[in-house]
């Protein structure tokens, strides 16, 4: 009886990555050709998802430079494109003059609902209107002055103490990280009535900060 041995040859990781990258480039190229044949007034293309990945270590600076050059621009991805704008007229149009035409959509709702539920920052339409009626009382001038301001002042005071301690010991600090944690503590306190202690490095606060 004859027996045959079969040997499997795994596809190298680099080959697989090259194939995926080639597919993504092809999809982006097709999208570019599609838009070039239409005469709609699209914002200029400032780059692709690859440009964002290459500049991931300085993403804020990269997008800031693009916004200074274009004001309004597009970043292409294989399955769609994102429009960025730093034009005050566009911001006013989206957030005020034609607000209901720019909903958050199902994609953003599905991503945010585990954390925000059916809150004002996640929903559209009638649910948004209902949440706005509730929120408008919380964000009155008196409430902001008496409650929200106190929460931000307490967080700022804690932040000042941490910065002062690190500076007196001549230790390096990540000020952006500290600002982020201070902001999270303040927002959680105002929005949910709970201080998770993100800035204080409490165990629960550290986990929430990392997930957020």
From TrEMBL:
Segments passing through the bilayer: 6-28
Record's keyword annotation contains Membrane: yes
InterPro entries in the record: Cyt_P450, Cyt_P450_sf
UniProt keywords, alphabetically: Iron, Membrane, Metal-binding, Oxidoreductase, Transmembrane, Transmembrane helix
Key word Ribonucleoprotein present: no
GO molecular function: heme binding; iron ion binding; monooxygenase activity; oxidoreductase activity, acting on paired donors, with incorporation or reduction of molecular oxygen
Pfam families reported for this sequence: p450
Family recorded in the similarity comment: Belongs to the cytochrome P450 family.
UniProt protein name: Cytochrome P450 704C1
Species name: Rhynchospora pubera
């Amino acid at each position: 009886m004859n027996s045959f041995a079969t040997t499997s040859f795994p596809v190298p990781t680099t080959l697989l990555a090259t194939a995926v990258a080639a597919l993504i480039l092809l999809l982006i190229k097709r999208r570019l050709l599609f838009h070039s044949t239409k005469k709609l007034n699209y914002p200029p293309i400032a780059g692709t998802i690859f440009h964002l990945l290459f500049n991931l270590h300085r993403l804020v600076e990269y997008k800031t430079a693009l916004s200074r050059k274009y004001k309004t621009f597009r970043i292409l991805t294989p399955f769609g494109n994102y429009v960025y704008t730093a034009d005050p007229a566009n911001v006013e149009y989206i957030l005020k003059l034609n607000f209901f035409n720019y909903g958050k959509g199902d994609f953003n709702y599905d991503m945010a609902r585990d954390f925000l539920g059916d809150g004002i920052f996640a929903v559209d339409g009638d649910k948004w209107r209902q949440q706005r009626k509730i929120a408008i009382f919380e964000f009155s001038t008196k409430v902001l002055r008496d409650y929200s301001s106190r929460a931000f002042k307490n967080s700022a005071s804690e932040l000042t103490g941490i910065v002062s301690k690190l500076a007196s010991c001549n230790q390096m600090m990540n000020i952006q990280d500290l600002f982020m944690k201070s902001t999270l503590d303040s927002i959680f306190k105002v929005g949910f009535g709970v201080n998770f202690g993100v800035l204080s490095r409490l165990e629960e606060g550290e986990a929430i900060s990392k997930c957020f």
